[in-house]
Each structure stands twice: as C-alpha cells, then as structure tokens.
TrEMBL record:
The keyword Metal-binding does not apply. It comes from Listeria newyorkensis. It comes from the Bacteria. Pfam families: AMP-binding (PF00501). InterPro entries: AMP-binding_CS, AMP-dep_synth/lig_dom, ANL_N_sf, ATP-dep_AMP-bd_enzyme. The chain crosses the membrane at residues 80-100. GO terms for molecular function: ligase activity. This is Acetate--CoA ligase. PANTHER family: LONG-CHAIN-FATTY-ACID--COA LIGASE, NONRIBOSOMAL PEPTIDE SYNTHASE PES1 (EUROFUNG)-RELATED. PROSITE patterns: AMP_BINDING. The keyword 4Fe-4S does not apply.
Amino acid sequence: MFNKYKPLNLYTNFAEAAERFPSQAIYFDEPLTAFPELQLHTTYADSKNALIQKATQLRKIGVKKGEKVIVYKSAKFDTYLLAVAVSYLGAVPIMISAHLPAETMDILVARLDNPWMVFDGDTAAKAQSLKNLPASKLIAVEEILATTFDQLCEQDFLTPDAISYMTHTSGTTGVPKLIAHSANSMGWRTKWQKNILSLIRKRGLVAFHISPVHSRFNIGISSLMAKGFPLLPIANPSRANITKVLTEFAPLVLETHPNHFVQWASLAREEPSVFESVKYYHSTFDAINKETMATFLRCSEYRLPVFLQVYGQSECGPMIMRFHTKSTLKRTNARAMGVGMPGLTKARIVDQDGKPVAAGTSGNIQMFSKGRALTYYKETPRFEENVYGAWWDSGDYGVKSRLGGLSLLDRQVDLVDKIDSTLAIEDALLDELTFLDEVVIIRGKNGSPQPIVAVNESAEMNWDLWWKKVSDLPHLNEPILMKYDEMPRTATMKIQRLELERSLQNSEM
C-alpha cells in the first residue's frame, strides 16, 4: 500500500529512528522508575543511548542472548524501554501485566523454563513470593541502576523467524496464554500501522494511554518512531491528570483503550476544551459506542476531525478499520467495524463447522493476517485449535454485509440466550444514558440477561431514564450497581465477563 515490509527488531527500529530524527521529543507525565535519567522530557537520541546503557547493565547482571526476560512492573513507558534493551542483547522480552497475581505468575514462570524477571516496587511483593523462580533470577530495577560497567556491550541478534517477543492473552477465560511473536510477524503489523500513519501529513504530537505489555504498544511505538512523530505516553489516566496533561501539551493525536474513552467522555462533555487540539482519535482492542466517539469529535477545534476505530486481536494484530467523522456517525451502526487492509488483513464468517456462510448470516469471525503470531508458547495444541488453514478463529461472533463490512456482535463464550448482541444493547444504553460509565450484560443466575452498571462518579443513577430506555429492548434483569474501579478488568481495560458471572453465581453480588 504505502510502506515496504521490513521485519521488526525492536532495538534496530529504535536506533534507526533516532538516527533519522535525533532531536524528536518524548514527554512523560511521571518520572520513569527504570530510566530516571530521562526525567520528564527526552529525545529519540538520548533515550537510545540510555537503552544501550541499560542493556549493558543487564548483560553485566547475567542476561545472555536467547534467554527469556519477564518484564513485570508498573505500567509506564519504561516497561517498553526495558523490552527494547532486552532485545538489544538478543534476549526475548516477555511482557506481563503488573495486575496478574502471584499464583498466575508462578504458572507462567514454570512454562518459561527459569527465565529472568525484572520488577519494581509495584510488583516486588508478588515477584519475591514466587515459588517457581529462584531469587538469583530476580532483577530489581534498583539493581539495574546500581550496576556499573567499563564499556558498552555490542548489539546481538536473533534470526527474523525466531521467537523474539512474547505478550499474554487477556486471561478473561482462565490463565493467560503466552503469545509468541517473531521479527517477521511483527514486521507485517508495523506495515499495517505505518500505512495508517502515512495518512497523517503533519508530524504532530501523539498522546496515548495504552497498556505497555500489549503487542499494540510495541507496534504503535515502533511505527510512530519510524515516521518521526513526537510522543506523549501517559501513565496516569485519571481525570485530573488527563486534564492537566492534554491542556499543557495540546496533542494532535490521542489513543487509548475503548473503556478509557468511555470513562473520559464525561470530562469531554463538561470540559471540551481539554480535547480541542485533537484532530485524530484512535481506539483499538474492542468496539466503542457511537455517542462516545461523537462526544470527542465535537470537542475538536478542527473542521473534520476523525475517529479511527480498529478491531483486532493479540494473535493477529490490527485487523479491521473504520474511519468515523461527525457526519458519518449520524448514520453509522457502531457495531460495524469496517473492512480489512488489502493484502494484509481480512475477515470471514463461518458456521460451527468452520464453513463460510452467506452475507447477512451471523456466525464465528475468522481472521486472515500476515502478522499472525507464531504460537502459544508451550501450548501449541491450544493455538492450533483456532487455526483453519490460513484463517484464525477469533472467538468472536459477527456478521458481514453484502459489501464486505464486518459487524461485531459478541464474544462466542459470552452469548446470552434470546439476545442477538449484548454489545449492541450496551452501546445503545451508553449512547443514551450519559450518567453511566459502563454497562455490561452477562448471564444471570438463571441464564437471563443481567446488566452490571457503573455510574459516573459525578452523577447519580437515574432509574426513570433507565427503565424508559430498556422498555423497548429484550427483557433485562434489574441492573446491579458496581463501582467502575471494582469491575474486574484485563490489562487493556476489557471487562472480565466470566469472572463477573462467577461472582454472581457465587452470590457475591
């Protein structure tokens, strides 16, 4: 399309960007625990030099080529920088969310055959309690900083088709699986992303709050740096901090998880000036309701701001895209995710036997992606269960139109009896009931649809409006109120629906 394919070596990509755009800025909203020398403002070139020093310190501690290094720390930009430093050594960064409990970590550690683990204060207690990892393989951030060396070590390389990076699945259905990526598979994903970035003519500031352990993060940062964009990674997504940071830096582009956009929507309605500088909004991981997108587009000072909605999956990368504007949203079904990128990604709908169905018929969504992951590490049979030749069964349920547009209806495991799409109902409720920050419909104790809702902290539950809105919908049980922060979530803020169901079945709600 626009960009040539190139395998992605995290450090090599970083170094080439630093050579082309040495003075380009990277800003932070909080100091970085593992890279305090970068303070709150650095450049591509200075951060590259800091990376080589950290890699040298890790080598001095004992990390060697081909070894696995779990990065298990607070969710900041230095999580990614550590992964790049590990890649410099020809070692394999294993990106694990800090929210995973010690019990889960012990299972993953055993699967990885005596890896190293880098941790910080946020994860120290869990890291030091692990039964399957000796203390000699634990590396505190403070130990890295205190390690001295005489000269910088040289970069080492893995072959482009070797496992060079691992992330984990959300764990919404159990213990997360470890998704293995290679430089080759990640290269196709950056080609997809760089094609999108080629549409943005101005190299304006890109602000983002994304889980740094997700493959979306390394693909996004690698692509942005290859194009020379200034970066503003946001560690703290609180309303107060978003107000402060966006007002101070006035970014051109803003990306975050769908659920953070939903949570920030009340701020956008009350203080639209906070988001007025943004021309391009970007949301991935999951679908997002229409009114939330419209709310942010109305804030922009630009005549034609754009909201890019991307549907994808960790195993396949970014897949299906759709560009929304204020005018197109008026006639858009937010469940309609769009189309794939020619030559790189596409989707089809199949029945329970894996056979393609006609347009307009609902079924399982299968994906074709040149950037598909290699396997689940040490769980290849589980990976192969979802492989249908060149196609990957996403676990999602949807439908395609006669023109080829894909609509997302539900996760296959989340289907609720007598409801065509719980996601569509959730969207409709969030579109109309702006006092809500979250609506989740799960299976109740008798299998009936049970809404779980979170009310915005500055509002109250309006029961009259709720019952008026649901009166023409399929029957829903009386909603259960929960605080937004108490809803179980993954690292990318997706609701762990099965965990909610288990809690309901055990009468904890």
